[in-house]
Fold:
Amino acid sequence: MPAPTVIAISNQKGGEGKTTTAVNLAASIAAAEHRVLLIDMDPQGNASSSVGYTKGVAEQGTYDLLMGLAGPAEVVQTTELPMLDVIPSSMDLAGAEVELVEVEQRETVLQRAMASIHEYREYEYILLDCPPSLGLLTINALVASNSVIIPMQAKYFSLEGLGALNNTIEAVREAFNPELVVEGIVFCMFDNRTNLARQVVEEVGAHFEGLVYETRIPVNIRLSESPSHGKPALLYDIESKGAQAYLQLAREVLARREGPAQEAPAQ
Ligand code: ADP
Ligand code: MG
Structure:
């Protein structure tokens, strides 16, 4: 069976829209009939609770997988969407950042665990919700990934973190994962009415040519409400602008991966 496409959703700045993007993009790709696994790499566990696994609901999770205490059969959980599974973050994941330091080949722990997931179940996409840091959990995510999607706000301070993230991606590429690429950049909580937002989009577009998604995620209250109901936005209010934006983003991500539609040959 073909190996899954593993995508890290990463940005070391907090509050940029990583978790919202990881959860709703995973749900939207699953709604498009692709088998998806969401892995919560953030000790805060917001992605887990956004699909019904608030702290304590699942006994084992990402920590146990990373530490070799449990296999996929114990940590993979189902969600309300038949095509979407999750490995929730458990309480102790915060400790992993420290404990991994002592582990041999500490950067490739998740990459090695991916093989066991691959044997356990066939996924087309695996999305990793990264914590807001460039520590070992994020490094493990980047080493195990084919590509990175960077969610960001169109704000001045959001630009500052991009350089550091880019350097980390470059370092991971050189040391562990030469194939790693930036898959795309998505603007979240986007308000087109401000000049600054347009300037930031322009600047990022100039640095990351062709990588900024046309789909922008607007500020939408449903996106901030749905996590407390343990649902991705498309199960909470599919008509909402937020749910629709993520469905559109999934179409764009899938279309980019599958390449341009076949055109009639030029004469
Ligand atoms: P990160 O994972 O990067 O820290 P989150 O996805 O958790 O960021 O988003 C930060 C906060 O902003 C959360 O409370 C989330 O519900 C809210 N949020 C994210 N995207 C949107 C949006 N498009 N509209 C409204 N609220 C949003
Ligand atoms: Mg988050």
